[in-house]
# Entry
Amino acid sequence: MEAIRWQSKMACSRAHLDLLRAGLGALRRSPTTPEALTRRRSCRLQGLLRYAGRFSPYYRELFDRRRLNPADIRREDELTQLPVLERQTARERSGEIMSTEIALHACLQRKTHGTTGMPFAVPTLPLEQWLEAILWARCYLDAGFRPWQRQVKIALPCRIPSWPYLVQHLGLFRRTYVDATRPVSEKIRELKKAMPAALVCWASTLDEITTELERADSFLNIPRVFSTSSMLWPSVRERAARRLKARVTDVYGSIETGPVAWECEQQRGFHVHSDQVIVELLDEAGRPARAGRVVCTVLWRRAFPLIRYALDDMAEWADTPCPCGRPYPLLRNLTGRAADLVELPDGTRISSVAVRAVVFEKPGIEQYQFVQETRTRFLLRIVAGSAFTAEVEGALLDEFRRQFSGALELQIVKVRDLRGTPGAKFSPMVTLK
Ligand SMILES: [Zn+2]
# Structure
């Protein structure tokens, strides 16, 4: 019986095809008025809640316990009837959150290494990855990038796809990938070779590249840069304008949510594309506030519905509308995105993600934290599960030695718990700073 039920699970559903159609439609015409945006958002929200209430045991139980019908929640301000989903709960109860309609083996495991130091895999259907790609395309086009132009994306090796996407075969959104863990000189060499119209990378990588260009008194010509994942400091933006002749668009998002908000040419803040992801800001008591913790409801996910999912960031709503006229609400003063640069013995600074990359994709690491003790010595604190064997530990140390040609030392310490003090932000990388 179980086998038959399992067989009947699908790789995608009718709901997904509708979403894809709507996504492509949104790429063609974005809502131009706040009313059109509200209508679209409310319609998508109801679709998501109906789906979650029917196919996700976690949400079904939640609706039942609160004696709610998914149809009772029609507007985003009515979402407060549901509790906030913390990352830890999402991780611990992922089996119940997952849609019973969808087979886990049909999903990609999109792993978030996050700022919490607590790896967590979000089951994502290939079709949902498409929906996310459509959102990214919307971001690129919004900043003036043209589909026939070429991009360079700097990414971790585990995130570099082995095959180009179909659209890239058709000559659209062509992309060259550069390994984020390679030395900065190599990254610059690749950029010179590719001469892309746009660069997509973390703010910390942009910092690394532009600092090196400044040191060598060298210039590149990359008109558009999309900066993600980490804090884009004004000095880095300025250096990118000078050294790359680039206009930098800061993009806010995460693996779980996809791109949530990005800047327009006015650079007054981040426009939340709330027909795809609803953002709420909550105060310490969990009440909606003008400034507070960022909580997201991802309208395009079905395999793993994320409703009122808490990110680790803080932000505030802008008081005045943006002069650009886009109907999307404006977020300001985003903080809490971890982006420390690690200073090496020779004085160069590299993105902390390059150091953290050695723990990615290693089995049995439930939580981790790097502590830089001196310029040459790192401590890696790990909450280890049973899959973290002596072989895994050996492989991790080997990889670290290879990565930094033996210039850095690493010591691994297993600990019982790594959770920080409540209210204080946990960082997976503690640098000398
Ligand atoms: Zn604007």
